[in-house]
Design brief:
The chain has 581 residues and is of the alpha/beta class. The chain has three domains: 87 residues, Gcn5-related N-acetyltransferase (GNAT) (Aminopeptidase), CATH 3.40.630.30; 171 residues, HUPs (Rossmann fold), CATH 3.40.50; 261 residues, Triphosphoribosyl-dephospho-CoA protein (Orthogonal Bundle). It has 23 helices and 14 strands. A seven-stranded mixed β-sheet has the order 1-2-3-4-5-7-6, with helices on both faces. The protein has a five-stranded parallel β-sheet with strand order 10-9-8-11-12, sandwiched between helices. Strands 13-14 form a two-stranded antiparallel ribbon. α11 packs across α23 and α18 packs across α23. The longest helix has 21 residues.
């Protein structure tokens, strides 16, 4: 910037810089909200902050100008800089929540007013933006009386289904908007699919794509509010004003339906304000009593917490059949995360180190696991078919999913073995449940064997295939074709016996290591050393100690030993326990 002043980024990762920004904002009656980028205005020959503003994704935040620069046009210059920076990072739509007093300033820079609450306004600078979304909604309109529901469906429960069935009985068309904001446990795409498949029998229900315009506690900044206690009501009022001004008119909806909220105070307040605000614009609010089960209201949060506790059978009682594959897929995802975070593990990536790997770390493994979520969802959904899909179709699907994983990891083989064993078992589990409404170990084993016997072994030159050919050990396909016999007969009961043990996962890993001919180990250090690894694992398990476990990890790292096959079987054991227990 030419002249007397300059704009530059200030790294908030540095404690001193962060403190300077916090003090500057406090002097201007503001707080520092989380930002990815913060720019300050100073004199060329001085570092005193005279103005500043930040970005969190496509959202402008924490903008302030000192008394010295007010009325000089510096606010407009700073906002222009933030707009340019946001677009350099690929954000064509830039938004801001700010005080109502700042509306004229932002409008002079091309921002459009979207919604207001007593203490805040919501604006955006974009071609199309909200108007494009409203045009999309207008294209879905049907004649006759219509209503709308906005839901997160994280996941889609019997309570959600009851609300939509009731709403569909009151209007000719019921529009359902699924919140797009992807900070939920289940992804936006998974939630959309759950709602669509769960409402296929309701022919007057139209499931709409969500938008980025849902205003939640996760997206609404509070830096400009005098009292943090005002944040919830302000966020809710903005969201309701968006509905009043834009969404309901676009759909032609004259009714909004919502479930009652007996437990969560924030959601209950949302319903209360909805009943106050929407009728002012001619929108009738219908509140349906929450569906209960065993004296407890059914809620998505209860389903999630039940899954976390490993009570799949209880969780399944609270969701429609179409949601079941997503719950099973989530448990598969959790099992991989459990294996990853079991610490310390000998030679494997964990929270302490990268084990015997130079091409993997905790972040890469997380990316790999996340890349498998859509694959697991798809495989579990296949299980709801009347008959098992052809083995060649499943095999090709696995190949495609493997390519997606490799793309996410930059070509590093992080979870190829886990994708095969977990994916196959997940499909079999969903199919078994669909047929019997319970997953018994014997039926699950039978289904795994039936599925895997149609899969053709491919000598793809992998480490595993070479180890199998050279030493005649059992590979991943053979183990599946035998229904993971050792897992069901030995590893699963052993794992179950350790309930409450803080080292349950690591001890089960050692137990598996002591028995499994791990092709990963054989490839790295040879067959004879692999047998020694089995003996070492058994000896440590017989006299378990944390210091000895850490010593084994150091030894494995120095000898380039990584029991990846045992790790795959640990995550599979955890998963099967969660769906059969």
């Amino acid at each position: 910037m030419s002249g007397e002043y300059e704009i530059r980024q200030l790294p908030l990762s540095l404690k001193m810089s962060r403190q300077r920004v916090e003090q500057f904002l406090a002097n201007n009656g503001l707080r520092l909200d989380p930002v990815d980028y913060y720019a300050t205005v100073t004199r060329v020959d001085d570092d005193q902050i005279l103005a500043g503003g930040g970005l969190k994704g496509n959202l402008i935040k924490c903008v302030a100008v000192s008394d010295e620069l007010r009325g000089t046009g510096m606010m407009q210059t700073l906002i222009s800089h933030l707009l340019s920076t946001a677009r350099e990072h690929g954000h064509e739509q830039v938004r801001v929540f700010t005080k109502p007093d700042n509306r004229n300033i932002f409008e002079s820079l091309g921002f459009k007013f979207l919604a207001q609450a007593p203490q805040a306004i919501f604006m955006e600078n974009a071609m199309g933006g909200l108007s494009d979304y409203c045009n999309y909604l207008k294209g879905l309109r049907r004649p006759g009386k219509s209503g709308m529901v906005v839901m997160n469906a994280n996941p889609f429960t019997l309570g959600h289904l009851a609300l939509l069935e009731y709403g569909a009985s009151l209007v000719q068309t019921l529009y359902v908007i699924v919140v797009r904001e992807d900070c939920s446990h289940f992804s936006y795409q998974a939630r959309m699919n759950m709602v669509k498949s769960g409402t296929q029998h309701l022919h007057n229900v139209v499931v709409c794509e969500g938008s980025d315009y849902a205003i939640s506690a996760a997206t609404f900044p509070t830096y400009f509010l005098k009292q943090l206690s005002d944040a919830s009501d302000t966020q809710i009022m903005l969201d309701l004003d968006l509905c009043n001004r834009h969404l309901a008119p676009a759909l032609g909806a004259t009714m909004r339906l919502v479930g009652s909220e007996p437990t969560d105070a924030v959601t209950a307040r949302y319903v209360e304000l909805m009943e106050q605000q929407l009728p002012l614009n001619g929108i009738e609010v219908v509140v349906m009593p929450r569906v209960g089960q065993d004296g407890q209201p059914v809620s998505a949060s209860l389903v999630r917490s039940t899954l976390q506790e490993g009570c799949l059978s209880r969780a399944l009682q609270m969701v429609p059949a179409t949601t079941v594959p997503y719950l099973m897929s989530d448990l598969a995802h959790q099992a991989l995360e459990r294996e990853l975070h079991a610490t310390p593990k000998p030679g494997l990536v964990d929270e302490h180190d990268n084990g015997a790997h130079t091409d993997m770390d905790l972040e890469l493994m997380h990316r790999s696991i996340e890349s498998l979520r859509p694959a697991f969802d798809q495989l579990a959904q296949l299980g709801l078919s009347r008959v098992l899909p052809p083995a060649e179709y499943v095999q090709q699907l696995g190949v495609n999913m493997e390519q997606r994983m490799l793309s996410a990891t930059g070509g590093v083989n992080t979870h190829r073995g886990a994708l095969f064993s977990m994916g196959l078992t997940l499909l079999a589990a969903a199919y078994t449940w669909h047929k019997e409404h319970v997953v018994k170990p014997s039926a699950l084993r039978h289904c795994i064997m039936k599925l895997s016997h149609g899969i053709v072994a491919v000598d793809n030159g992998s480490h595993g295939s070479r180890a199998i050919a050279a030493h005649h050990v059992e590979g991943a396909l053979s183990m599946a074709q035998h229904g993971y016999q050792r897992l069901f007969k030995e590893w699963l009961p052993y794992y179950a016996s350790l309930s409450g043990d803080p080292y349950r996962d690591v001890k089960t890993l050692l137990h598996i290591m002591s028995e499994l001919d791990d092709t990963n180990v054989i490839h790295r250090v040879g067959y004879e050393t692999a047998q020694e690894v089995k003996r070492e694992a058994r000896a440590l398990l017989d006299n378990f100690g944390l210091a000895d476990l850490e010593a084994m990890n150091r030894s494995f790292i120095s000898r380039n030993i990584s029991p990846g096959g045992a790790a795959d079987m640990l995550s599979l054991t955890i998963f099967i326990d969660s769906i059969t227990n």
